[in-house]
TrEMBL record:
Family: Belongs to the UDP-glycosyltransferase family.
Record's protein name: Uncharacterized protein
Annotated PANTHER family: GLUCOSYL/GLUCURONOSYL TRANSFERASES, GLYCOSYLTRANSFERASE
Molecular function GO terms recorded: quercetin 3-O-glucosyltransferase activity; quercetin 7-O-glucosyltransferase activity
């Protein structure tokens, strides 16, 4: 049973950061801001990062914010050592190979099936690094998507113009002689 009827009428944003600490922190700040504007938030972490968060903050650390919940999906990587961090290169490869798409799609279906107390998903806010599968999922579900790039503006400009830099032969650098 729903705690309030109003809860089922709120817009519902699913926020999914790239699974690295700085990206998670930035997305969590954005999710909290969106929440203050009246949205129901589902914050999606990988199972690995979700467990690390619970261990560091305690099992009740995710309680207390109404209409703000946390969900976890697998990252498609082999299990890591308990206290280790994950290899960012392997995570990026997992994103590019669509290992996140099926679990994310399943989560969206599950969230929409539970929509009696919480409104169905109305939009996705994805880290730019997760866009290869997040855009696909948004299109499949007919949802608007906003991409949130957590990198510095200078880095973003380099990323944006990377293809042109390759075409001009400026990257990749061949050796130290090209740096001078």
């Amino acid at each position: 049973m729903c705690s309030t009827v109003q809860s089922a009428n709120k817009p519902h944003a699913v926020c999914i950061p790239f699974p690295a600490q700085s990206h998670i922190k930035a997305m969590l700040k954005l999710a909290r801001l969106i929440h203050t504007r009246g949205f129901h938030i589902t914050f999606v972490n990988t199972e690995f990062n979700h467990e690390r968060f619970l261990k560091s903050q305690g099992p009740n650390s995710l309680d207390g914010l109404p209409d703000f919940r946390f969900e976890a999906i697998p990252d498609g990587l082999p299990e890591s050592d308990e206290g280790a961090t994950q290899d960012v290169t392997l995570l990026a490869e997992a994103v590019m190979k669509d290992r996140f798409l099926a679990p994310f799609r399943d989560l969206l279906v599950r969230l929409n099936e539970k929509a009696s107390c919480v409104s169905p998903v109305t939009c996705i806010v994805s880290d730019g690094g997760m866009s290869p599968f997040a855009i696909t999922a948004a299109e499949e579900f007919g949802l608007p998507i906003a991409l949130f790039h957590t990198i510095a503006a200078c880095s973003f400009m380099g990323y944006k113009h990377y293809r042109a830099l390759i075409e001009k032969g400026l990257v990749p650098l061949k050796g130290e002689t090209e740096i001078n």
